[in-house]
Amino acid sequence: MSEVVVEVSFTPLPEDDDFVLDQLTDELVEDLGDIGEVRRLEVPTGPDSKGVGEVVLATVAAVAGADPGYAQALVDLVVGFLNRNQGRRAHLKIGAVELTIDQATKAETAQLIDLVRDAIEHSR
After folding, report:
1. In this structure, are strands 55-63 and 5-10 parallel, antiparallel, or unpaired?
2. Mean pLDDT across the stretch 103-111?
């Protein structure tokens, strides 16, 4: 079974600076770390670069677990993150599928869980 990576990003607000975005990205990593492997993304470096690539703010990659409840946990954590950080949207990219989550209702959250579950299954 191949590894499926779920890219999760969130929109910054006009008043956000790099410090705020770094803290929020860490918060998202911590939240998603409760359900599996997650890492911050780095900007790819070229052959002429010196050192490690820069970390991309507001974007993380999570390795989708095989547990059937993974999709629900992922969506619930992202919705919880958005509820704590009003005015933001989250963007999920799973293979060729891209989803945007705003302030989701319970019915929308249930639909998102099904969409994420299907996208993960189709990407395996």
Report:
1. antiparallel
2. 93
* Residues forming a β-bridge with 55: 42
Residues 63, 64, 67, 71, CA torsion sign: positive
User: How many CB atoms lie under 10 A from the CB of residue 22?
Assistant: 15
How many other CB atoms are there within 10 angstroms of residue 20's CB atom? 14
- Residue predicted with more confidence, 50 or 30: 30
| pTM of the entire predicted model | 0.89
Among candidate residues 83, 93, 87, the one with its CA nearest the CA of residue 116:
93
Residue 3 has pLDDT above 90, yes or no: no
Closest CA to 104 of 95, 112, 92: 112
- Average pLDDT of span 14-31: 96
Cα–Cα distance measured from residue 9 to residue 56, given in angstroms and rounded to the nearest whole number: 10
